């Protein structure tokens, strides 16, 4: 079973229903019924999705009398973004070095063409 935070986050984000739930929660807190409304699935199925999101720390569930709002938690998303950005920077650096080599080759060829 996956238990490191980054894996939990990416596992939760792998499902389009869970991503849609997070997108809805970005607009504000919502109940399970409100979150289930746009989906053609049972409340039990939505609850399973919410448990995955909650286990990943992407949502929390509060209690306000009978109202149990779900709330988006962004810290795991920030961690995932940082991880992705690290590899994006590595790829960007490699492409920049490749571009420099290509320009160097092109300058060399242009110089040889004028001789």
TrEMBL record:
Residues 1-92 form the HTH arsR-type domain. GO terms for molecular function: DNA-binding transcription factor activity. SMART domains: HTH_ARSR. InterPro entries: ArsR-like_HTH, HTH_ArsR_DNA-bd_dom, WH-like_DNA-bd_sf, WH_DNA-bd_sf. This is Transcriptional regulator. It comes from Phytoactinopolyspora halophila.
């Amino acid at each position: 079973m996956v238990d490191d935070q980054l894996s939990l986050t990416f596992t939760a984000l792998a499902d389009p229903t869970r991503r849609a739930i997070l997108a809805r929660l970005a607009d504000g807190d919502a109940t399970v019924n409100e979150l289930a409304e746009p989906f053609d699935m049972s409340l039990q199925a939505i609850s399973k999705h919410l448990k995955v999101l909650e286990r990943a720390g992407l949502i929390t569930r509060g209690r306000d009398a009978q109202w149990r709002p779900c709330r988006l938690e962004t810290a795991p998303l920030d961690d995932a973004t940082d991880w992705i950005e690290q590899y994006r920077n590595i790829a960007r650096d490699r492409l920049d070095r490749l571009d420099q080599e290509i320009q160097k080759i092109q300058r060399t060829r242009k110089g040889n063409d004028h001789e």
